[in-house]
Amino acid sequence: MIIFLYGPDTFRSRRLLHEMKDKFIKDADQEGDSLGIVDGQNATISEINEKINTGSLFTKKRMVIIEGIFKNKKTTIFAELLGILQKVESDDEKVIIIRESELGTKEASLKADAKKLFNYLLKQKYVQEFKFLKDNSLLSFIKKEAALYEKDISTQAATEIVKRTGGDLWLATQGIKKAALASNEKMISLELIKEMTTETFSEDIFSLTDALGARNKKLALKILEEQYLAGASDEYLIAMLTRQFKILLQLSEAQTNKLSPDKIALDLKMHPFVVKKGLAQARNFTSAQLLSYLNLLLKFDFANKTGGSDIKTELTLLIAGI
Questions:
Q1: pLDDT (tens digit, 9 = 90+) per residue, 261-277?
Q2: How many Å apart are CA 177 and CA 190, to the nearest integer?
Q3: b/e for 271-298, b at 16 or more Cβ within 10 A?
Q4: Binning pLDDT at 50, 70 and 90, where does residue 29 land?
Q5: What SS3 state is found at 306?
Q6: Please, what are the domains in the chain?
């Protein structure tokens, strides 16, 4: 069985991936011996093949999660992986989940073998594209998220969260969580949202990258600690820092091409405020530095998924090393 999850809404695809992984462990593999996780960007075909075909003494079923395979630089891996998948697609004892975050907008730029793999995955029975939620779908998501904390939320309050977070679900869910835990009232009101989510999350991430760019380790470490004290998770901080450094890399390249801020905002479909703030930050980094930070964060993300690292310590060391 092959499952393909792709699209720019990384929050919902990541959440579904976690749900499927947890259900597999609960129902079929309590020891975790039959679960394999592959860093697709850096994997070799032999590593992927080994993960898929390694058996367990305790369960016939096997789940393998491959993330970021389309970022792999090995030219032959896509054709080789396609061959492996074609052999196991009808095997119900093997569940192969491929998750990709960027393909919602970049499939047209894939090279021939990668394009063949992408088209093959699209034809599978279990495929889900995660586009960004908008309008009523976004408000509905926010109301369901509040219900997870046994809370209701007014339409005005839900709309305010969208306004303050730009519809970013990583930010929105953190805001809902913070508001839900701050009051014993059943209803999350507009007033509570204004009090608890005054654009603090996005501003703190800007502040953290500002401090990193200025090489102000003391301030950056202070902001990081404040984020943890405010309830931010490892996953959230990795996701938001990755998002922010991706934005800065895009802006850095746009600056190199000498585009105006208005043109950049239009081309990259970013809010003018984000562009203005980000351009000032991007000047503090070289493209090589931004790529280096992004690669480190990708490693942290993989380590976080496999439980192989203390993420808070890793982020602290990253900041200490600037």
A1: 878 877 777 767 678 77
A2: 15
A3: eeebbebbbebbebbeeebbeebbebbb
A4: confident
A5: helix
A6: 2-129 (3.40.50.300), 135-198 (1.10.8.60), 201-320 (1.20.272.10)
228: helix, strand or coil: helix
Token duo for residue 307: 């439980």
Residue 233: exposure state from Cβ atoms within 10 A (0-12, 13-18, ≥19): middle
Handedness of CA 301, 303, 306, 312 (dihedral sign): negative
Closest Cα partner for 129 from 19, 12, 5?
A: 5
Q: What number is the average pLDDT over the span 36-54?
A: 90
Task: Give per-residue pLDDT as tens, 138-161.
Answer: 999 999 999 999 999 999 999 988
Using DSSP, state whether 221 is helix, strand or coil: helix
Tokens found for residue 184: 């014993």
Round to whole Å and give the CA distance between 57 and 38: 21
- Report the C-alpha gap between 158 and 135 in whole angstroms: 11
Using the predicted structure, report yes or no on whether residue 297 has a pLDDT greater than 80. Answer: yes
**Distances in whole angstroms, Cα of residue 216 to Cα of each of 204, 239, 243:** 15, 22, 21
* Neighbour order of strands in the sheet with 126-129: 35-39, 62-67, 94-100, 2-6, 126-129
